[in-house]
Amino acid sequence: MIQVTNLTKWYGLRKAIDGLNFHAKKGEIVGFLGPNGAGKTTTMRILTAYMPPSEGRAIVAGYDVVEESLEVRRRVGYLPETVPLYADMTVLDYLDFMAAMRHLPNADQCVDEAIQRVNLEDRVESYIGNLSKGMRQRVGLAQAVLHKPEVLILDEPTIGLDPAQVVEIRAFIRELGADHTVLLSTHILSEAQQICNRVLIINKGHIVAEDRPENLQARLAGAERITIELAGDTEGAETTIAGVKGVLTVEPMGNGVFEIEITPGKEIRPAIVRALTRAGQDVVEVHSQGVDLEQIFLELTRSDDKSKGKRTSRQQKE
Amino acid sequence: MRNIGIIAWKEFRQYFGSPIAYFLSIVIFLFLGIVFALDLVQTMSNTYSAQVLEGTVVLGPLLTLVLFATPAITMKLLAEERGQGTLELLLTAPVRDAELVVGKWLGAALFAAVILALTWVYPVFLQAITKPNGIDQGPLVSAYIVLFLLVGALLAVGVGISSLFSNATAAFFASLVVSLGLWVSGLVTSTLSYMGSMGGTSLWGTVMQYMDFTSHFYNTAYAGRLDLTDIVYYVSIIVLSLFFATRVIESKRWR
Ligand SMILES: Nc1ncnc2c1ncn2[C@@H]1O[C@H](COP(=O)(O)OP(=O)(O)O)[C@@H](O)[C@H]1O
Ligand SMILES: [Mg+2]
After folding, report:
1. What mean pLDDT do residues A223-252 have?
2. Least confident span in A134-148, B101-115, B138-152
3. Is pLDDT above 90 for B170?
4. Cβ(A10) – ligand 1 distance below 6 Å
5. Sheet strands side by side (includes A282-289)
6. In angstroms, what CA-CA distances link A164 with A60, A187, A316, B242?
7. Is the entire prediction scored with pTM above 0.90?
8. Residue A254 sits in a domain of what CATH number?
9. How much is the ipTM here?
């Protein structure tokens, strides 16, 4: 459904995406996961034929986005990051207009169905400008699914919504996976984990990992973290822990709590406790955190950053 | 083709929901009404004058008004869409860039046509009060046709300028400058040609005269003559401006 080869985009002298290769099969929900500025929006704008790539090719729903862009646009539903809506139109007028532009033979029926799918039945006569952020997101989604497109491209569909709305929209997207091929972008790891069949992790214009959420987790189980809580004076504890073989990083969290990252597959908790005890520290609690995508993601983006001497481990908070 | 109609119809409808449209219509009608009434009073009190009030009495001031009004009609068309991000929606819909541009222009032109048609009430009123002789409505038909083309050309220029901006206010002022520039250049040309007529005509003078924006209305249609040259002139401006706007939209996709 989506086939991307060596896709590259320059903005002037700046490379926003660099030789991307990926695909999405029919009925798949693929997550595009990465921090701000990773190149998610740029990629999606190329796939929706909003702008052409500088190099490489993209085939969407069987058509080339440059050569046969109108065919692509007929078969794609798109929810841009900015949810573009006309504030001075009613929901119904807006959807009627979008349906007309798509030349839908049974426009009224399609509009009714889309309204039902996003539960907007009681707001159809409201002006879009008067709707809440969550409601507007639904109008945007209704517009994207109006023509039952083969491919749905959703750019950060849950950004700026309150938690209840987020849950609702995520459930809706999972539902959409049954009839459409969905490509969605997000910078929230748990979101990709919850919704997607497959996750592409993108950072600085490169795909740094691609797998099913559960495989990614298994493959990178090494990014394991433990927390240790000490009592009393913790002076010098950080150096002691860092001195133990197999410890990658130590981060003091305050109140005597330390977060420690260790190398994969080695049980070094006893060694850490022994070292601390020898140094005169009182260990109150040792706790091994489960590994989740969040850690994998931090790991991947950090190793990518290391060469540039940057630290991004604390940037990605939901 | 169908897409042009859909986009034009949406724009046309939106004008009737926007305060600017009502503001414009009211200003135009008030202003024309005042001019018309003054002319009427003057002519009636001046019984010895050989001057007769013509049906074109409102067309002169109307031309001045449209120079100011058209930037307000076109300012939002593409600039606001770009600013609000809704252009992304239109550019990813199965619509060609040219269809989008022509549709936008057509919507504005339809709206302008409604306003222009309504200003005909003044000549019709004149006809009613000057019975039994009446006034000749015939020359008005050609005058209105060319005036509509002139407005269409101004609107097309406005669409072209609107495509360059992402803010309606900026587009308004830029279009106003161009609109007034076309007007002033007409005054300059006519002054030059007046001076030139004393010293003989040159090729340059002829070209300048052909390029003059308002004379294609004043010199012929205003006097009741329908001239093909004028029609070709305004239609070429429309085509060129819309082509320009399409190219701007296309080229901005790359950035
Ligand atoms: N129109 C543009 N002009 C110049 N640079 C841009 C433009 N859009 C995005 N960029 C740059 O390209 C990179 C990728 O941006 P984007 O695709 O928006 O990332 P994301 O959606 O993942 O946050 C960023 O560094 C951004 O600053
Ligand atoms: Mg983005």
Report:
1. 85
2. B138-152
3. yes
4. no
5. A247-254, A257-262, A224-231, A282-289
6. 33, 18, 21, 47
7. no
8. 3.30.70.100
9. 0.84
Query: A224 near A291, Cβ under 8 Å?
Result: yes
Tell me, yes or no, whether A312 and A278 share the same domain.
yes
Ligand nearest to the CA of A157: 2
Of the residues B14, B78, B88, the best mutation for testing chain A's interface (the one with the most A CB atoms within 10 Å of its CB) is B88
In tens, the pLDDT along B54-98 reads: 667 777 788 888 888 999 999 989 999 999 999 999 999 999 999
Q: A90 with A118, same domain?
A: yes
**Residue of A7, A10, A11, A207 with the most ligand 1 atoms within 8 Å of its CB, for mutation:** A11
Count of CA atoms in the C-beta half-sphere (13 A) of A116: 6
Rg (CA), chain A: 24
Please tell me the distance between residue A41's alpha carbon and the centre of ligand 2 in angstroms.
Answer: 4
**H/E element holding B67?**
helix B59-74
Q: What CATH number does residue A63 fall under?
A: 3.40.50.300
Whole-number average pLDDT of chain A: 85
Q: Quick check: A10 contacting B, CB < 8 Å?
A: no
- A148 and A6 fall within a common domain: yes
Judge: B94–A73 Cβ closer than 8 Å, yes or no: yes
Query: Do residues A242 and A310 share a domain?
Result: yes
Of A148, A176, A211, which residue constitutes the final position of a domain? A211
Q: Are residues A230 and A196 part of one domain?
A: no
Nearest CB partner across the interface for B6, out of A52, A70, A100:
A100
Measured between beta carbons, the chain A residues lying within 8 angstroms of B250 are none
Residue A216, domain member (yes or no): no
CA A5 to chain B, closest CA, distance in angstroms equals 19
pLDDT of amino acid B194: 66
Residue B163 Cα to ligand 1 middle (Å): 22
Closest chain B C-alpha to A113 CA, distance in angstroms: 20
Which of these, A149, A73, A156, lies nearest to A114 by C-alpha position? A149
Domain that holds residue A122: 2-211
The domain locations on chain B are: 2-253
CB A193 within 8 A of CB A226: no
